[in-house]
Amino acid sequence: MGLKQVFKRREYKYLLNAEEYTNIRKLLTGYMSEDQYGLTTILSLYFDTPQYYIINRSIEKASYKSKFRVRSYGTPLPDDPVFLEIKKKIDGVVYKRRLEIPYELLEPTLATKTDCLEKYQLTVADNQIRQEIKWLFGCYTLAPKALITDERVALFANDDPDFRVTFDFNVRFRDNDLILGHGGNGTKIKPPFETIMEVKATGAYPIWFSNIIANLHLVKGRFSKYGYVYQHYLNKAGKKHVTTIV
């Protein structure tokens, strides 16, 4: 299973306690397998405007919302890949496009709004994503606001690799020293659950998965890591938005 560059799917979250996590992992045995990366530390650097326009629009439950982040799998070395990601959600459908570059190019790429990549022979698809990122930086004054880190285990269905389930643990953040290469240390957030299970599907759930969800009495929830960090830690000017877990 390689790392895809373009996604169109629906994503559903379930917020699990320790017992629920243990139970569902047992029941998924035989239906799903871990991907080749196993337990992975994911670092995500979220960008926003000075007024936090992007996350506030998301909290307001707009029918269209987007975000920009830079993601690495583990603490990156200069030659390691990082991913510039645009993630949009339109009427419940998630569209994600990402551009892979070596970590050593991240600083000049952001400083030039991707112009420095013009001298590289990008594929047509990658250049289109580069143009979208350039457009985004032209529309908004974006800067890194939070580095959010967690551990993740990803599973894929044995009979359909596009049906995926991920489990995220130990979510933490920092709003200073926003450099991916400095690792994933930070303040651990404390939501009222242990594990974030996210189901990524291009269509309906398989029957076997629907049965597992029903037998465990699991219900869909809403949770945004960046949204939670903004509401509970970054929004120092006031707590007017802190009404739900987003």
Automatic annotation (TrEMBL):
Top-rank taxon, per record: Bacteria
Domain VTC as annotated: residue spans: 8-228
CDD domains per record: PolyPPase_VTC_like (cd07750)
GO terms classed as biological process: polyphosphate biosynthetic process
Residue intervals passing through the bilayer: none
Descriptive protein name: VTC domain-containing protein
